[in-house]
Amino acid sequence: MIPERQIARRLISRHSLTVPVDIEKFALNFADIDEDSLPNGVDGIVFYPPKGRPQIILEKSQHSNRRRFTIAHELGHISIPWHVGTISGCHSELENIGAPDPYWQGEVESNSFASELLMPSAWLNTIINAHASKSMKLLMQHARA
């Protein structure tokens, strides 16, 4: 089991989350959320002030679907123990995904966490099994719900 996915599953279980997750409301349990214009194509940042709660700062021009994923991704940085305290700008384009670099490894891990939190594997497997003989179009309708 991938550790960051396991962390997401524990949060799902502990907080009785169901699909679709109200990710902004849920994230507010862990951090404050603000919007601003972020430079260099950055989608989100987690900032850890000296005192108080972490702060998620989102690029204000994001599409609502991208915003949901960015919040979940930044929550990953807050929830994955070995990410806590790191500050970096997160990009939707992972052009250096294969690079052996701690930054890119952290981005991949937070993406994995966010994917599991927003579309849990157990839920997705249930949908796939229930509609195995039906079209991909129906599966995608469930994913967009």
Regions with pLDDT < 50 over 5+ consecutive residues?
A: none
Major sheet, described briefly? Answer: 4 strands, mixed
Q: Summarize model confidence as the mean pLDDT.
A: 86
DSSP strand count: 4
Give the helix proportion (percent range). Answer: 40-55%
Strand content: 5-15%
**Rg (C-alpha, Å):** 16 Å
Which structural class do you get from the secondary structure elements? alpha+beta
- Sequence of secondary-structure elements: HHEEEHEHHH
Strands across the major sheet, in which order? Answer: 1-3-2-4
- With helices defined by DSSP (H or I, 4 residues minimum), what is the helix count? 6
- Molecular shape: globular
Task: State the end-to-end distance.
Answer: 27 Å
What does this structure look like?
With 145 residues, the chain is an alpha+beta fold. Helix content is 48%, strand content 11%. Strands 1-3-2-4 form a 4-stranded mixed sheet, covered by helices on one side. The longest helix has 17 residues, at 102-118. It is globular, with a radius of gyration of 16 Å. The two termini are 27 Å apart. The model has no long low-confidence stretch (mean pLDDT 86).
List the helices and strands and how they pair.
Layout: H1 3-14, H2 23-27, E1 32-36, E2 44-47, E3 55-59, H3 64-79, E4 89-90, H4 102-118, H5 121-130, H6 136-144
Parallel strand pairs: 1-3
Antiparallel strand pairs: 2-3, 2-4
